[in-house]
Amino acid sequence: MLKVEQLHAGYGSLEVLHGISFEVAQGSIVAILGSNGAGKTTLMRALSGLIPIKSGRVEFEDRPLGRLSAEKRLREGLALVPEGRDLFGSLTVRENLVMGAYTRRSRFEMEQDIERILDLFPRLKERLHAHAASLSGGEGQMLAIGRALMSHPRLLLLDEPSQGLAPIIVETVFDVIEQLNKAEGLTIVLVEQNAHQALEVAHDAYILQGGSIVLNGEAATLTANSSVQELYMGG
């Protein structure tokens, strides 16, 4: 579904990613692991069109994305849940969900999708008319994922979904990630510092270090790798 070849990207004259190459099979969950400063968020921003790539090639469903804008990539079926969530704080939960459907035309389908999101995250139903700025971190993450799902993506990019969340909320979020993948066949690229959680749900994983991929393989294989355990799993 997604093929990245020799991707170089960064900010101005600063190159952060140095020739990244990887593939994401349709229907899979792929984890991108790495410590702070490894280039994970830069990668997600480059894939979603928020920053331009310096060189390399990104193909989505065998079509080169080239210099397509973030909006056009969203219309193509590629949605990002950004680090920090970037919610519209002055809007309600429902209004944020509606904003996520701005590429859609059918009002009826939009209302159906809102109900689907509220079934996935029952807590949002209780907070439906609350302003996003008043939500807890966990509620905000649920809303950010729900807003992205409103665009009907075929590929979901999740940037640090567990960041700043209590362990019980992390479990809820990852349960939904698994459900979206297994029940709905949604393809997911998951950037995470929580290697335990990410490798538990992922099929394949890549380890990013200093803007380069230093290790990759099936998630189960990397979980058993002593270097991965020492560097990213606390043991």
From TrEMBL:
InterPro entries: AAA+_ATPase, ABC_transporter-like_ATP-bd, BCAA_Transport_ATP-bd_LivF, P-loop_NTPase. GO terms for molecular function: ATP binding; ATP hydrolysis activity; branched-chain amino acid transmembrane transporter activity. GO terms for biological process: L-amino acid transport. The keyword ATP-binding applies. SUPFAM superfamilies: P-loop containing nucleoside triphosphate hydrolases. Residues 2-235 form the ABC transporter domain. SMART domains: AAA. Keywords: Amino-acid transport, ATP-binding, Nucleotide-binding, Transport. Belongs to the ABC transporter superfamily. This is ABC transporter ATP-binding protein.
